[in-house]
């Protein structure tokens, strides 16, 4: 992998890690489910007008949009709105990788190697430790919601595998057409027109401007720029070389949350985070015997989400 591409991969990790700060800012102004709908609606409109159809079956696009888009971000945004620390959210969402491997084994009959299984067990042990620590602080529900977001992402990944799009970026952009309607419907039912209307009529306030800035970052840098660079890297380099750079996303997320939001994870949570990342990295390491690449199998078909 050329040095230029390594720097670009690092840039993407930084963009996606900072994305969680942008989500935090967005949720300061908009209700969580409505914010998720806005995030995709802003992308969906120009996509319909200017981006070519990705030439995949509609059912696969719907599956990806409902799993990766609707489910993941609805659960994630609600979790962060109800107390999930921004830095830990960026870490716990990495559970999508082992979830994808396990779901692939169940539904697609993909083989799970011993190395993958060991990596999954390590990651699960780290997640369980974080959940136990948060439960002691009466904050278990946000962790569970974030894990459900990761599980939804994993289901979306299965649809991506079945779709096998020729142009992954076009596929991701067209996926954005799916979530707005169900997310806006959920928002009306759960959050109500009064809360939605208040978030729109107060956009001129300092909090409103910060929320708009966060939304702009999520759309422009987290999705379009980040996903575009990531897709080009996947085309030019082996997936197993590029994919491990996504492990830097929670490192950036935790660091930025510490610097900007003064979030201070406990020593036990720091150790658990290292165990999670180590488990995913161990499961993704290649061996001489050909076997499915943990992260490539889990993440490769599409640019990473929260993105």
UniProtKB/TrEMBL annotation:
<feature type="transmembrane region" description="Helical">
    <location>
        <begin position="171"/>
        <end position="189"/>
    </location>
</feature>
<comment type="similarity">
    <text>Belongs to the EamA transporter family.</text>
</comment>
<feature type="transmembrane region" description="Helical">
    <location>
        <begin position="139"/>
        <end position="159"/>
    </location>
</feature>
<feature type="transmembrane region" description="Helical">
    <location>
        <begin position="61"/>
        <end position="80"/>
    </location>
</feature>
<feature type="transmembrane region" description="Helical">
    <location>
        <begin position="86"/>
        <end position="108"/>
    </location>
</feature>
<feature type="domain" description="EamA">
    <location>
        <begin position="7"/>
        <end position="130"/>
    </location>
</feature>
<keyword id="KW-0472">Membrane</keyword>
<dbReference type="GO" id="GO:0016020">
    <property type="term" value="C:membrane"/>
</dbReference>
<dbReference type="InterPro" id="IPR037185">
    <property type="entry name" value="EmrE-like"/>
</dbReference>
<feature type="transmembrane region" description="Helical">
    <location>
        <begin position="32"/>
        <end position="54"/>
    </location>
</feature>
<dbReference type="InterPro" id="IPR000620">
    <property type="entry name" value="EamA_dom"/>
</dbReference>
<keyword id="KW-0812">Transmembrane</keyword>
<feature type="transmembrane region" description="Helical">
    <location>
        <begin position="209"/>
        <end position="230"/>
    </location>
</feature>
<dbReference type="Pfam" id="PF00892">
    <property type="entry name" value="EamA"/>
</dbReference>
<dbReference type="InterPro" id="IPR050638">
    <property type="entry name" value="AA-Vitamin_Transporters"/>
</dbReference>
<feature type="transmembrane region" description="Helical">
    <location>
        <begin position="117"/>
        <end position="133"/>
    </location>
</feature>
<keyword id="KW-1133">Transmembrane helix</keyword>
<feature type="transmembrane region" description="Helical">
    <location>
        <begin position="242"/>
        <end position="261"/>
    </location>
</feature>
<protein>
    <submittedName>
        <fullName>EamA family transporter</fullName>
    </submittedName>
</protein>
<feature type="domain" description="EamA">
    <location>
        <begin position="142"/>
        <end position="282"/>
    </location>
</feature>
<feature type="transmembrane region" description="Helical">
    <location>
        <begin position="267"/>
        <end position="285"/>
    </location>
</feature>
């Amino acid at each position: 992998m050329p040095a230029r591409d390594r720097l670009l991969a690092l840039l993407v990790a930084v963009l996606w890690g900072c994305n969680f700060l942008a989500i935090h800012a967005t949720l300061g102004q908009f209700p969580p489910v409505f914010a998720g709908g806005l995030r995709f609606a802003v992308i969906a409109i120009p996509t319909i007008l200017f981006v070519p159809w990705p030439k995949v079956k509609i059912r696969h696009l719907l599956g990806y949009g409902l799993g990766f888009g609707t489910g993941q971000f609805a659960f994630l945004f609600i979790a962060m709105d109800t107390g999930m620390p921004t830095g830990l959210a960026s870490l716990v969402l990495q559970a999508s990788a082992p979830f994808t491997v396990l779901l692939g084994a169940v539904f697609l009959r993909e083989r799970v190697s011993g190395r993958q299984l060991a990596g999954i067990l390590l990651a699960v042990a780290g997640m369980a430790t974080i959940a136990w620590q948060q439960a002691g602080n009466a904050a278990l529900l946000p962790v569970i919601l974030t894990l459900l977001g990761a599980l939804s992402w994993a289901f979306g990944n299965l649809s991506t595998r079945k779709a096998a799009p020729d142009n992954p970026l076009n596929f991701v952009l067209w996926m954005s057409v799916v979530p707005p309607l169900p997310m806006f419907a959920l928002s009306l039912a759960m959050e109500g027109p009064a809360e939605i209307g208040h978030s729109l009529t107060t956009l001129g306030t300092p909090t409103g401007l910060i929320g708009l800035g966060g939304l702009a970052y999520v759309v422009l840098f987290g999705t379009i720029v980040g996903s575009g660079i990531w897709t080009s890297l996947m085309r030019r380099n082996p997936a197993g070389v590029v994919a491990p750079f996504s492990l830097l996303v929670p490192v950036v997320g935790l660091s930025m949350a510490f610097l900007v939001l003064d979030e201070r994870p406990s020593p036990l949570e720091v150790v658990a985070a290292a165990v999670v990342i180590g488990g995913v990295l161990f499961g993704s390491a290649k061996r001489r015997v050909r076997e499915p690449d943990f992260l490539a199998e889990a993440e490769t078909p599409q640019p990473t989400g929260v993105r």
